[in-house]
Design brief:
12% strand, alpha/beta, single chain
């Protein structure tokens, strides 16, 4: 089995690569996955529809219709950072939007890659880190539950030890840098192989 069309959805973590890092190629994690998949399927189509600043509801209402029309067989959905940082953070609304995304693509028979988010505790002041990480844990409980329900391949960035290093963040302390994208891509490849036996 080979995937024929990979579509990446989400916010800035998927839309851009962040700061460059000496010795690391400046490629988005999703671009790296597309390159890896083309080793076994050179004809793979790839579309990155992610947009800076999008919440999960934005991903559902603004990115999902275009993605569904493309009928991909592999979809990544990395979203939640902007939801968690919003003063209007609502776990029920987040769950509803994420479930609608999972349902739309699983209904089409696509493999869905989901994600827990990177741990920002190493770069945030203690009080802000505590509040942000508490919200992230709420989001992660939803992600893990829905990922199991919809049989998604869940990439657990939160527990990936290398992503707790402050050196993976850009100077703006908001976006992961090129090293983080390399680490996330490697974990996605590992999870795809474990779940399917298909080398990425």
């Amino acid at each position: 089995m080979h995937w024929n069309h990979f579509v990446a959805l989400g916010d800035s973590i998927t839309a851009s690569v962040g700061d460059s890092v000496p010795g690391v190629e400046s490629l988005r994690w999703a671009d790296r996955i597309a390159h890896a998949l083309r080793r076994t399927n050179p004809g793979l189509r790839y579309d990155n529809l992610a947009q800076h600043g999008h919440t999960t509801q934005d991903v559902h209402t603004r990115q999902c219709p275009e993605a569904v029309a493309l009928r991909p067989d592999l979809v990544s959905i990395l979203s939640g950072g902007n939801d968690v940082l919003s003063p209007h953070w609502s776990p029920p609304q987040y769950r509803d939007a994420l479930e609608a995304l999972f349902r739309a693509f699983r209904k089409q028979g696509a493999t869905v890659i989901s994600f827990t988010l990177l741990n920002p505790a190493s770069i945030l002041p203690a009080r802000l880190a505590a509040r942000t990480c508490a919200r992230l844990q709420e989001a992660h409980a939803i992600i893990r539950d829905l990922s199991g329900q919809y049989q998604c391949i869940c990439v657990d960035c939160w527990h990936l030890a290398s992503t707790h290093d402050p050196r993976i963040w850009s100077a703006d302390r908001k976006h992961p840098n090129a090293l983080a994208h390399q680490l996330v891509a490697a974990e996605v490849e590992r999870c795809l192989h474990l779940a399917t036996g298909i080398p990425a």
